[in-house]
Structure formats: C-alpha cells, structure tokens
Amino acid sequence: MSTSSLENKSRWPVWLCWLAMVLDGFDLVVLGTVIPTLIKTHELGFDAVGATFAATISLVGVGLGALFIAPLSDRFGRRNLLVACVTWFSIFTIAVVFAPNVAIFSTFRLLAGLGLGACLPAALAYMNDYAPAGSAGKSTTRTMTGYHAGAVATAFLAIMVIPDWRTMFVVGGVAGFALVPFLWFKLPETLPAVIHVPMPASAARRAGEPAAARAPEPAAAGGTRAASAPAERASFRDLGKNPYPLVAAGVAVASFMGLLLVYGLNTWLPQLMSIAGYTLSAGLSLLLVLNVGAVVGLVIAGVLADRHGTKRIVLLWFGLSALFLAVLSVKIQNELLLNAAVFVTGVFVFSSQVLVYAWVSQLFPARLRGTALGFAAGVGRFGAILGPAVTGTLVAAGIAYPWGFYVFATAAVLAVAALVLVPQTVAAVSGKRTAVGPS
Fold first, then answer.
1. Neighbour count for residue 160 (Cβ, 10 Å)
2. For 150-159, b where at least 16 C-beta lie within 10 A, e where not — what string?
3. Which of 37, 74, 266, 419 is most deeply packed, by most CB within 10 A?
4. How far apart are CA 427 and CA 247, in angstroms?
5. In a domain, 198, yes or no
C-alpha cells in the first residue's frame, strides 16, 4: 500500500470521531435556537415551563446514555457503540418533527439523548486509544472542536430557517444517518478482540477450565498506539478503588459545573439577551459568536495543556470563565464590544470542560478510559440538566438577567475549588502501578 493510501486511511478515525462530535454540537444548541420561537408562538403548547421541561428531560436522556451506555465501549468496542448510538439518535431526532405536543416532543428528545450521550465518551476514548502518547490534550481538544463546529453550524442554520423550527431537527437526523455507513465501513476498532487459546490437556485439568488469552495489541492506523487489552471487564466499581476516589470526586464536581455552564449558556443565551433588550436575531448571532470562540479556545487550550500540564491550564481556564461570565452581567451598548466579550467568554468556558475530559484520559488507564469518561460525562450531564433548569426558572421568575450570569460565574469558581484537590498524577491500576503522563 502506498504512503498516501496509508495517510488517507489514518485520517478516517480522526475525521469520523470529529463528525460524531458535530452531532453532539448540534444537540448542544438546537433547543436554544428553537425555544424562543416555540415560546412566542405557543406551538405544541410550549411556554417557559414547557421549554424548561423539554430542555431538562433531553439532558436526562443524555446523562443516562453517558453513565450507562458509554461504559459498554470498554466491553464491546468503541466502533460498535458509536454506530449503534448515532443510528438511535438519528431516528428519534427525525421523530421530533412529528411530535403533536410538548410531552411527545420531550419524550423523543429523551430517547435521542440516550444514544447521543454515549457518543462523546466513546469518541474521546477512541481518539485517546488511537493518538500518540503524550498528546492527550491536543487529541481531546481537536476532536471536541467538532462539538462546537456543530454548534456554530446549527446556530448559523437557525439564523437562516427560523421560525421554521422543524427543519432544524430534519437536518440533524439526516446528518446522523449519513454518518452511520462511514462509521461502519471506515472506522477500525482500537480495542483488540478476545480470543480463546486451548490449554494442553494436563494444564486444563489443573486449572479446571480452558484459559483465555488476548490477541496481541494491533497497531493503529498511521503508526499510532492502540489501547491495551483489558485484563478484566471495567466497571464503575473500579473508580472507587485506590488511587481513584479523590480523582473521581474532583472530576465529578468539575464536570458537573462545566456542563452546567455549557448547556445553560447554549440553551438560554438567545433568551437571556432578548430579556436584556437585544433582538432575537442578535441573540442568535451571539450564540454563533460564543461557539466560534469555543473552537478557538479548544485549539489554544490543547496546545497549552500538553506543553504546561493539564491541571495548570484547566484551573486557569475555569478562573477566567468566572471572570468573563461576570462581565456579561453588565449590559454592553457597543455591539463590537458585546461580540468581543461573548467571543472571549466562549474561548474559556467551553474548553474548560473539554480539558477535564483530557485530564481524565491521562489519569486513567486504557482499560478504564471509556468507563471514566462515561462517568465524567454522565455526572456532568446532571449539571447540564441543572443549568437550563435553573436558568429557565430564573426566566419564568423574570430575573434571568443578570442573575443567570451570576449563577454561571459561581459554577466556574466551584469547579476551580474541586480541581485544586485532584493530584497532578495518579498511579494506574492495571496489573502494575505506573505514573501516568503529565498533568
């Protein structure tokens, strides 16, 4: 096979995981783009309470998917899980178009979330299996640029098609179906399969059963490393064994607060700006600017994390997020300054959460990577539930601006406090204890 063919083959996993994150980015902002229209028109019976319920139940599905479906990638393979989950998500995203009322709309969003919730941990685990050693920061943040590229594209689409909100869900579902065959045919598995090697008869009699041996670790495309074969099935119980409890607790709090920020802002920013006196089109434009800032922040954060240590950069990023979220509580009359403030806020807020995922990928061994990322994303999704729910309650009470931004700034400060307690390195429990990468 020619060198160019090998290079093209090696790009498939990078781009396919990136595109899977584009779907997650779509889901991140799609409700935020349609909620103002649904509330204004009362279509399907929507009001502020109904919108809050729909946003909350959607994230319940995503959280459950991350907690209980994503860890299956450690058992059955990243590729198989990604294919199944993208297919499931696409079916129920299309189904939203046919919802007759708020309850059915919300049910379909719940079901779609189950599939989508597992995509992010599985894709990030895949990329950290596949990527060269020492590049966890760049591998994670590069993949997650797809998350915010999807959010930007969705916000841009909304500017063109809203108030035709159904088109938003048609495009999301069709995009998912288009991705599935590429995942199936072009994505190699990073986890080696289990094969059974017969024992000699005498050894089998002594052991009482045949032995099972794992195949040698396959080389990933492009010469990068693949995940080590797990010696045993991973489970959430492993996260409670030394030396992981303190790490898991700190990561859980930070991920909870990080996704509270991400989903709270993306779900309600257009409405918050509308309450502050800006037009709906201005609010949608600011949503786009916020996520453009996120993409820029991801590129910068990954490079700095690999160079200076993930812990140092994630603490700085959450601290600056708190500062700029507080700035947004002040109404800015100048349009250029307003866009600049929202852009810089996006730079720090969203990459803060992604740096948490990068750190998890460094601190846990390959056999636990999918489980640990699923735990971080799953617990974080409950923050994602709380963010839109709290902000929606503030909207219903008429005090969302500026108090919504005060709540967000406080969440960023709490994330800093939690991560300060997490050690810089952890000994991996994988047969022998070794230091794990720079943090």
1. 8
2. bbbbbbbbbe
3. 266
4. 11
5. no
Contact 117, 68 (CB under 8 A): no
Asked, as a colleague might, if the bond just before 402 is cis with ω within 30 of 0, I would say yes
Structure tokens at 38: 């649904």
Max CA distance (Å), the chain = 84
Q: What is the CATH number of the domain that holds 417?
A: 1.20.1250.20
Q: What's the half-sphere exposure (Cβ side, CA atoms, 13 Å) at 205? A: 2
Residue 202 lies in a domain: no
Residue 191 DSSP one-character state? S
Residue 215, in any domain of the structure: no
Is omega for the bond preceding 121 within 30 degrees of 0, making it cis?
A: no
Q: Are 229 and 365 in contact (CB under 8 A)?
A: no
pLDDT digits (tens, 9 = 90+) for 211-252: 333 333 333 433 444 444 444 555 566 676 777 788 888 889
Into how many domains does the chain fold? 1
- Please tell me the distance from the alpha carbon of residue 110 to that of residue 89, in angstroms, as a whole number: 10
Name the residue range of residue 424's domain. 7-183+231-435
- In a 13 Å sphere around the CA of 252, the CA atoms on its Cβ side amount to 14
Structure confidence at residue 244 (pLDDT):
75
Instruction: Tell me if 193 is assigned to some domain.
Output: no
Q: Could you report how far apart the first and last alpha carbons of the chain are, in Å?
A: 38
> Is residue 289 within 8 Å of residue 346, measured between CB atoms?
yes
pLDDT of residue 204: 39
Whose tokens are 């990604």? That residue is 82
What percentage of the chain reaches a pLDDT higher than 90?
22
| C-beta separation of 67 from 374 below 8 A | yes
Q: CB within 8 A of 268, min separation 6: which ones?
A: 32, 35, 388, 391, 392, 395, 400, 404
- The pTM for the full model equals 0.69
